[in-house]
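diguanylate cyclase, pasting as requested.
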Amino acid sequence: MENVHILTQRVSGRGDFLPFSAEHSPTNEITETHKLVTELQTSLVIEDVLAIYAKFTKQLLNFSGLQFQSTLGTTQTSQSDTNSTPYIFDLAIGKEHLGQLIYFSKFPLGQAIEKKLHTLHTALVYPLRNAMMYSRVLKLATKDALTGLNNRSQFNDFLLQKLENCRRYQRPFSLMLLDLDNFKQVNDNFGHKIGDDTLKEFSKVLCSSIRGTDSVFRFGGDEFALLIEDPEFTTNKVIAERIMCLVRKSPLMSKYKVTTSIGFTLANSQDSETEIFARADKGLYKAKASGRNCAKAY
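Structure tokens follow.
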């Protein structure tokens, strides 16, 4: 028996080793890898792909957290503990670098485990790349390329959902429309680079002025919208004042004398998307007619 070698894995919490039984034969490993590939192909969402992979890999390695870092950002499995030692693997398909897969484990990875992980990575990379491509396409379809905000298409979807919730669950909300005063002169006199910088600065102002339950959108040009969860005029006034204050304090926007005009209205259960938008637009018109750089309700 002294010539028998057993592949072992350290098990968290017990401090001993778990032997892989005969079921982990090469033939069975191929079957299991094929099963993993099949499961990974059931979703085009990066978070789901990573979760499926993590669940499968947990049978091999008792890691405390799993992370994937790429140009799209960082994705990690739920309840990941990233305080343990990180073990980093580059994922690539040919010369195409996808990102880094990071396992967090309290115990060192042996050569046998690393070899097995490399095999599993070959099953992961193609579904993961497909999910990344889908994420990029989805972002192009729903995000404004310049500012990264939700676009008009997303606004239409969000507004319809808000109206449905308002009718079914009595969850009213408000719509705020905004545009920039003197923005055309910035483009005409200083060029589109300064204009783009101004739009990006205003986008940051809007994002820092709302709460997690609110949403911000760019329609195009200097036209923006907010969907605000709290259905009170006082809430809208607070948010509007916060926005105008930050615009005044912005060195860039102050330098080019750019301000903002704002119109807002409250939704009711009888509203259509056309009706609520028309009211908010009338509020914006009132703000323009009142000398700009102000907020008006309708």
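Note for the archive: The chain has a mean pLDDT of 88.
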